[in-house]
């Protein structure tokens, strides 16, 4: 054995013992005597890398590779040094170079996967990580990268709306690394989005058991508990979240709705104002020059009341417009164009304008959904004087002519089976046409569809010969819908704008609701304090639309609806 070979072996032994200063001195002596010793250059680079001097480490390993490019380990360690320098493209190439020399090396395959992950090339990273795990099932880095790659692929699928794929990959991530609380949380989020709320709750609980204590996760658990019908538990989850993050607008808005659901109006209305800080309300936020109306008496000044969200919200809270006018104000209303004919005719409204149009001059402004809190609404003073909407005479004439004279002894019933797809949880609240098929057997009924979206397609696909006269396709705005409703004896609908419209017109209306309905229907009620002519039929168990429709059918058969 040559003197240089013996010295190199001695230095390696010191290096492995962690005696880096002594090993470095020998490596440098070797290079002084034999500058083209590739192993010494490589090993000196490793010592510098271990000390955090990654740039100089790269230079020494590069010199080693120039001296001998056939050594796989040089390229593998160069990849790790480049990773430390955040040069992930170069690290990827170095790992590829190592694999070209030894395609079955699990550590280099794992390094390749890690570089691909850092470059956000998740599908390729997943393929490489799977190969690394197959080559060396006990390699921790391979299992970790496999978990991370599955997680990233799942997250991309979730962002793209491919929730089934996301579920599969989050599960695979947890199989590779059961302690990944983040994967549990994200799997829980997927389950919540596909309405598997019990599974979502189990994932969040498992994440908590692994030490997760993030406010967003407690907030997500609150949403799940709320959708499971556990309002008090939901509030407890929101309270825990707000201890950790008191200014979280999303959580405070969700908590507000849980409070309102329980009838805790004073705090619920106050907390509901946090909605303006949420991402969902970003589209509605504007900078107003006019001050916000605070409920004070006015003498001829003008208040702009602006709608915020869906059609149903505007129809429900239009009841407050006469109360604003009673303050002495001229009332302007800004709302979606399809509501203008109806809201423009509400008592006390001076003028109405559509979203996007130039606003008329005004002295004050107020969001429509802030009016209940501003005016101190609770069960004792809830404004329930209906009808507060009026249908234009020309629409009444039009729809009376369209429907014609009723058949003797027949009830005319209008049906809606789903809400707008723009609603965040439309599938949650919408039974679909097939759920209502048991009603087709009721005798002495003329059925009319009030369904606006997908009416023709749904009737063709799910009607099964049910004789329903389609009307929705001919509605140009809500004044048409309102006039058609006035020609009917009863309206049946899920939680949609039509439910509010029929109630505001004082027409008999039956509303089928999910097991955990929105806050506005409160808890344990079969009536609505907002609408005296409304009856509520809630799912008797989670997801049980058949049970809700059976209750409705029984009530109709008994003449109670």
Characteristics:
single chain; 561 residues; alpha/beta; Serine Threonine Protein Phosphatase 5, Tetratricopeptide repeat; Rossmann fold; 4 domains; six-stranded parallel beta sheet; four-stranded parallel beta sheet; 26 helices; elongated
Polypeptide structure, described:
- Helix 5 packs antiparallel against helix 6.
- The mean pLDDT is 93.
- The chain starts with a helix and ends with a helix.
- Strand 6, helix 23 and strand 7 form a beta-alpha-beta unit.
- The chain is of the alpha/beta class and 561 residues long.
- The radius of gyration is 34 Å and the shape is elongated.
- The protein has helices at 3-16, 20-33, 38-50, 54-67, 72-84, 88-101, 106-118, 122-135, 140-159, 163-176, 181-193, 197-209, 215-227, 231-244, 249-261, 265-272, 311-317, 321-325, 340-343, 371-374, 393-403, 426-429, 455-462, 478-486, 497-504, 545-557; strands spanning 302-306, 330-335, 349-354, 364-367, 411-415, 445-449, 468-470, 490-493, 509-513, 534-538.
- The strands form two sheets. Strands 7-6-5-8-9-10 form a six-stranded parallel β-sheet, with helices on both faces. A four-stranded parallel β-sheet has the order 3-2-1-4.
- It folds into four domains: 3-156, Alpha Horseshoe (Serine Threonine Protein Phosphatase 5, Tetratricopeptide repeat), CATH 1.25.40.10; 179-283, Tetratricopeptide repeat domain (Serine Threonine Protein Phosphatase 5, Tetratricopeptide repeat), CATH 1.25.40; 286-374, Rossmann fold (3-Layer(aba) Sandwich); 398-557, Glycogen Phosphorylase B (Rossmann fold, 3-Layer(aba) Sandwich).
- It is built from 26 helices and ten strands.
